[in-house]
Amino acid sequence: MAPEALSQVLRPLKNLFSGDGYPQLLVGLGVADDAAVYKLNDDQAIINTLDFFTPVVDDPYDYGAIAAANSMSDVYAMGGEVSFALNVGAFPARLDPEVVTEILRGGAEKVIEAGAVIAGGHTVTDDEPKYGLAVTGLVHPDRYFTKGGARPGDVLVLTKPLGTGCISTALKRDIAEIEHVEKMVESMKRLNRAAAQAAQATGGIKAATDITGFGLLGHALEMALASTQKFVFEMNLLPLLDGLETYATDFVFPGGAANNKLYYEKDVVFAPSLSDAQQMILWDPQTSGGLLIALPPERLADFQAICATKAQPVWVIGQVVEGHGLEILA
Q1: pTM of the model
Q2: For the segment 130-140, what is each residue's pLDDT rounded down to a tens digit?
Q3: Three-class SS state of 110
Q4: Do 76 and 189 have their domain in common?
Q5: 144 occurs within a structural domain
Q6: What is the pLDDT of residue 23?
Q7: Angle formed by the axes of helices 276-283 and 255-264, to 10°?
């Protein structure tokens, strides 16, 4: 759903499960975060999330793997590890069963890569394919991440390049170069597990989110507002997928980019030198994007070193300062 519509439908529900009646619910509908967190005991809390979407690539195996990586990402955004998952699927009756098998195989092998297991699922018949996972993970109840923990002076880092929405739209229009699609698929299939593990091993990190349908700026703004701070990004520091700038110049963006801009732009200030295409890149909805993490500057070197041991890319893209909203520098 578009961010404005989602906010509207959730508003009446936010206070139903809050307050003293649910002390074990550490993260729920009361705040906008990536997943639910429910405390089991002093050492364990459950992270639970669900995600599914229509195909973003042509290959059914890759589609399944991307959907699974995207579904598990919310557990990693909360600092946890995936324990098990359930398949969630909607497939046309006319679809070749072998295609469905490949979608499910792609998802299953990605879950195995995460060190977890698929324990069941549910499917329905629908005119358009949809696939994803309901995911359960674990985290220590004192060590989960939220969107609201950023503090002035924190460094902002990103763990995947931007551009999946734009390039997948170019693919749908049959104008994408094959090498650009391959790089996009590789990025979308990459788990955020190593980045989350590096953040936990570094310590002292409280704030994180994953970059998905609301684009970099939509999700960053949720973090900034939850933290009551201002985020400052530098456009020249942002990692971009190969080919993105070419398609962006031709304004090959999905409709969700315009929806994100319309809903969030009142709290965002761009440097005057940034073009409309550069700005729209930052509104571009991402599929299975990276983690955006705010970490104390004294922890940056340790985080980068741990990421290097895991072959996990990381880019410093900005900082947290006192104030409100987002500012994008050239």
Answers
A1: 0.94
A2: 999 999 999 99
A3: helix
A4: no
A5: no
A6: 85
A7: 90
